[in-house]
Structure formats: structure tokens, C-alpha cells
Amino acid sequence: MKQNQSLTYRQSLSGADIYRYIKAVGLPVSIFLLAIFIIARFAAFGSNLVAPMTGVMWVAGAICALVLPSHRATILTETHVTIGCYLLALAGIRELIALVSGVSSEMLMASYNQAIPLTSGSTISGYLQTLLWISAIMTPLGFVGMQGKRIYSFKRKASKQKFFDQTRSIRNSGRNQLK
Amino acid sequence: MKGIVTSLSAFSQNAFSYLAYAITSNLWFVLLAAGALVSIILYLREEIEVTVRDEQQAL
Asked: What is the CA radius of gyration of chain A?
């Protein structure tokens, strides 16, 4: 048989395809580098709490994406956005703590033009630390719970038997309506 | 010019050494790296499975 290879039209990679491939590799790598940077900024708090929590969130997202192939793109994007926002929020709270750590009660009174208790200068950084701890623990717990619920509700709703029953019901009800 | 290349090389070596140290010094980073690797593989599989290249005879 004659080979007419030169007459075959093949669509080459477009710019949009290349961008999607770069994004597929670049997004996880950039989030990973961000995680290393933020964890290093937090020293022991980072290596003992932020690193495990970020890892647990990432693995939960990856497992959920493996189990539910139809929701894969959504789950992966959601996982990366959540981890990125989590890390940036922690870094932001850390900067806020650094900002208010040297603030005294007299300075707060002057800035508010209002008399406040003398202990307010030290409690403001305490509140921010509480916020830091709550954000560091509750965000991953909420995310993992959400992914678990997603798997549970999908498995409960989308069984093969239920799909056949639903189709049979539509067929039978359609027949009944024709009568 | 040679100085710039040497500085860039030293900077890159330093960066990779720090990355290797950071990953090996804390085992939780292995979890992070595994998550990142699985995400990259799944993203690429998603792209490869969804994309269909057009191929047909011109005549």
C-alpha cells in the first residue's frame, strides 16, 4: 500500500495547549515553593504544625481527585487555591503580629482617641495569636471534612443500581403517560 | 560576564542545596512533595485525556 504520509493533516500544539500544560506543572510547583517559604518563615510553628496540616490537606485533595475522576479538575483547583490562601493568610497574620508587637496601651489610646484598659497593648497580639492558631488548625480540618463529605455523598448518590432504577423509572413513567 | 555566570551558578546550587535540606530535615515535606507530584500527574492526565488531536487525510 502506498504511504502518503505527507498528505496527512495533523493538528499541532496550539499556544492555549502549551499554556495549559505549563499551568498543570507550574501551579503545584509554585504552591509547593510557597509552602516551603512560609513554613521556613514560621520556624518551629511551621515545621511542627503548618507543614503537617498543609500536607494533610494536599493528600486529602489528591485522594479525592483520584477517587472521583469526574470532579478531578474542580477538586485539584480547589485544593491548590485553598492551600495557597491558607498559607498566605497565615503569613498575613504573622505580619500583623509583627506590626502590633511593639504597641503599648498609651499608643492605642492615642490612635483611638479613647481611654482603654492598660492591658490592651499586650492583649491585641494575644488575640492575633489566637486567630493564627484557629486559622492554622480549623482551615485544614474544614477542608478535609469537606472532601470526605464529597466522597461520601457522591458514592451514596451515584451507584450503578440507582442509575438503572432511575432510567427504568423514566422509561416506565413515559410509557404510562402515553397510555 | 564570567562573574555573573559564576554567581548565578552559586545561587542555583545554594537554592537546590537548601531545598534538599528542607525536604530531608522535615519528613512532613515528603508528604507535601508527594501531594504536589500526584497533583501534577493528575493535571497532566486530565489534559491528555480531554485533548483530542485532529488528524485526517488532506485529500
From this structure: 27
CA dihedral A85, A87, A89, A90 (to 10 degrees): 160
Domain count, chain B: 1
Inside any domain, residue A142:
yes
- Residue A129 DSSP SS3: helix
* In contact, B30 and A4? CB cutoff 8 Å: no
Q: Say yes or no for a CB contact (<8 Å) between B34 and A59.
A: yes
Residues 6+ apart with CB under 8 A from B37: A28
pLDDT of residue A146: 94
pTM of the model: 0.78
Find chain A residues with C-beta within 8 A of B22's C-beta.
36, 39-40
Region B20-36 average pLDDT: 87
Say if B39 falls within a structural domain. yes
- Alpha helices per DSSP H over chain A: 15-41, 43-45, 51-67, 72-100, 105-112, 120-157, 160-178
